[in-house]
Every structure is written in structure tokens, then in C-alpha cells.
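Study this fold:
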Amino acid sequence: MTAQGETNYEGMIGQKGDIVHGPYPVSLASIGYLAEALEDERLADQVASGGKFAAPRSFVTIASRVPNWRRKKATGPSTFMQAVLLPLPANSAVNMSVDQVYFAPLYPGDTISSQSTITGIVPKKTRLGEGFIITEDIDHLNQNGVLVARTINTLLRFVKPESSDKTPPKAAEPLPAKPLVIPASDFPPVSMPITMTALAKGAAAVRDFSPLHHDVDFARSVGHPTAFLSYSHQMSFVVRALGEWLGGDDRLQRLKLSMKTSIYLGRTCVCTGVRQKTDNPQPGIETIEVTLTSEDGTCTPGIAEVQTAGAR
């Protein structure tokens, strides 16, 4: 503390978190559960073949997660995301963007260890409340010490205002009916209805059991109209679309997504992609502007960097 009531957040920049071990090896079964959740025919066929193949690129996040249910004898951090553990005056958090760079494939039998480094903390007043925008770099290594991926994550930690009369928060109104407008795309749009079954399968497959993503009453109690897709579910859905467009996701080098609007239960999630036109492309790399859309418009825009076919 720099003074009474103040936090030395600047002193936290550069801080490294504990090395956090993912609890389960990658398996064909866990990849199969993800294929079910994403309704991914290509990935399901790979699982059914039983041959050796790399897990989807986004699987590194799934393999890194600490169990949501904490055993009585559990020790160590409850997450590999150090940003949510920092001793800051904030009682709520929301993910703003996720940027993953991929270096090596992840195969069944591999395990992941993750370590975070805090790279930025900026005080910010938002419509949600007073808080901090925190950026961290998270390195994910396999059991041989090989760097598989790096996640650059941006999170908003904030103080959720309390009601003076201590009454429960007013639930948001139900979602109004809206038409689905699909943006222009250089690839066939990939879509999936967001049903309660889809949310349940997704929560299990990506191992994100926040009640925001499967509990309608809880989501409404904190101001959302209903439950919505997690960022891990969204990221995996984009990787599914890229796999269909490119004939596999092994060419994917980087994926950056910005969560602007939630993709809610009862809506349709559609992924589109547009090849980015540029006069000075990075040699051997093609950039695709990806967008997740629902009846509420653009929800999650992003950028995918992929190797050109001739560069492999």
C-alpha cells in the first residue's frame, strides 16, 4: 500500500504468477466432447478415426484450466489467470479480449503448465464501475518444456456498485425478437443455434462452469437478459470455422478476439471471415478478419493470422 486506502498497482506490473499445472492430459475423449459442443463434423471424424492428430489450437486454454470444483485438499491458485487474483480493490471481473499466438501442436497425452506475467494495469472508470484494465501474458508449456502457445489476455476488474437498499438487482428484460443479418464473407458462414443444450455442452467441453454461461436466473440477477457463451466457447467456435475454411486449423498462427456484445441463449451464433487486403503482407502469412454475429449484430470481431498454403 502506498498510502491508506491506496493500492500500489504499478508495483504489480512485471509480477510473475505461480506455475499452474493443468490437471488432465489431452485425450481423444476430451477433444470429442469439444467436437460435440461445436457441432464440428470435421473434428468428430478425426476423433472417430482414432489416429494421431493435433488438438484444435484453442484447446490449450481448456488443457490449462484448474478444476472449477475445488477439493478440500486442493492447494495452489484457483486459475492460471493471475489478473483475477491480484489484490486490487475490485469485486467483479469481465474478459475484454483474448489474443493467442501458437508455436507448437498439442497432442493427446500432452499436459500443460501455465505461468502469467502482468504487463499492464490501467485505472479505468467504466459504465460497470470504477476499476482496472489488466493485461497479462500467459505462457503455456507442454510436459517437455516446449512453448505451445502464449495468451495475451485483457481483463476488466471493477467494483460493482451496491444497491443502497440492499434489494436484489433488477433482472434485465427478456431479449426482443430481431432478424439475423449475416455480414459479407469470403467463406461460407458457419452457424449454430445457441440453445440451453448448446450452452451445457459448451460449458462441459471448455470446462468453464461460470453460472453466467449456463444459469439463466443467475445471469438475469446480475443484469444480463439471459445466459451467454463464454469466451473459450467463442474462441473454439471460430477455430472450428477456420478449420472448415482452411481444411484444418494447423495453419493458424494467431487468433485475437474482442468481446464487444454477449452471444445470448436463444440467439444464433454465426462466424464469417473476410480476407484482409494489404499492400505489405507479412511473408507467408494471410490475415482473415473474423466476426461472430448474432441477431444482436456484431458480437465478437477478431483477426486470424494463418500460414499461406505455400508456406507450409
Residues 251 and 309 are 8 Å apart (CA to CA). The chain has two domains: 9-23+65-158, 190-311. The beta strands are 20-21, 92-102, 112-126, 129-142, 147-158, 190-193, 252-258, 268-275, 285-294, 297-307. Residues 190-311 form a domain with the Thiol Ester Dehydrase; Chain A fold (CATH 3.10.129.10).
